[in-house]
């Protein structure tokens, strides 16, 4: 299975807090994202593509207070878990997971299943001109203990194709012993570590 880093996920108690965090910590304002009706969340995006990490972005995500929750499943990235909600409220926004793109979501999930890993089931989603298939577990659990990402298969368009350059680039990424990423920002280098 060939996986490429697609995006880093920064969770926030509210989207406004996530935007303020991005402006304060990274020195830039994230671009508009949108609403995920499927999960009752909304986001903002930041292009962090670099030569070593093409078509890569940072997603700031929060529960959308104006949207109904998902039906029959928990929200992705453990956003419904009380421990993560408490961490986001008390410590502020932070890196909570990563997403990897694959050419065939079905084949990738089958390979993981053969290795005893429940990566979830393929679910179709869309927002505006973007469409994708994503692997979701009904419990919404991140595979962080296994050091594994959430898997995504994009349609024809990718968010980074239209996101403007912002002066932030991903320099390095590691997911072996916890999740960490090193970014070049307008103010210097910054290291993000897994929040919870």
Global shape? globular
List unreliable stretches of 5+ residues.
Answer: none
Mean of all residue-level pLDDT scores: 93
- What structural category arises from helix and sheet content? alpha+beta
Give the radius of gyration: 16 Å
* CATH fold node name: 2,3-Dihydroxybiphenyl 1,2-Dioxygenase, domain 1
Number of helices: 3
**Binned strand content:** 35-45%
Domain Glyoxalase-like: 5-175
Pfam families: Glyoxalase_3 (PF13468)
Protein name: VOC family protein
Question: What distinguishing features does this structure have?
Answer:
196 residues; alpha+beta; VOC family protein; Glyoxalase-like_dom
Structure, explained:
The protein has 196 residues and is an alpha+beta fold. The protein has a single domain (4-193), classed as 2,3-Dihydroxybiphenyl 1,2-Dioxygenase, domain 1, CATH 3.10.180.10. It is built from three helices and eleven strands; from the N terminus they run E-H-E-E-E-H-E-H-E-E-E-E-E-E. It has helices spanning 15-26, 82-91, 105-114, and strands spanning 4-11, 31-36, 41-47, 57-63, 94-101, 121-127, 130-136, 150-154, 169-174, 180-185, 188-193. An eight-stranded mixed β-sheet has the order 2-3-4-1-5-8-7-6. The protein is globular. The relative contact order is 0.23. The model has no long low-confidence stretch (mean pLDDT 93).
């Amino acid at each position: 299975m060939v996986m490429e880093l697609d995006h880093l996920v920064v969770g926030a108690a509210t989207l406004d807090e996530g935007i303020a965090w991005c402006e304060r910590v990274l020195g830039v304002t994230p671009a508009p994202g949108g609403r995920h009706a499927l999960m009752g969340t909304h986001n903002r995006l930041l292009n962090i593509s670099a030569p070593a990490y093409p078509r890569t972005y940072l997603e700031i995500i929060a529960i959308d207070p104006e949207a109904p929750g998902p039906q029959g499943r928990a929200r992705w990235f453990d956003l419904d878990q009380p421990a993560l909600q408490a961490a986001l409220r008390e410590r502020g926004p932070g890196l909570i997971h990563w997403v990897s793109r694959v050419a065939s979501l079905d084949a990738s999930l089958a390979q993981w299943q053969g290795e005893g890993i429940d990566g979830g089931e393929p679910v179709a989603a869309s927002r505006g001109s973007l469409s994708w298939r994503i692997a979701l577990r009904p419990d919404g659990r991140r595979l962080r203990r296994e050091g594994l990402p959430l898997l995504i298969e994009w349609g024809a368009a990718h968010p980074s194709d239209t996101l403007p350059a912002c002066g932030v680039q991903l320099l390095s990424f590691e997911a072996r012993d916890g999740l960490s990423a090193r970014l070049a920002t307008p103010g210097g280098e910054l290291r993000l570590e897994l929040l919870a």
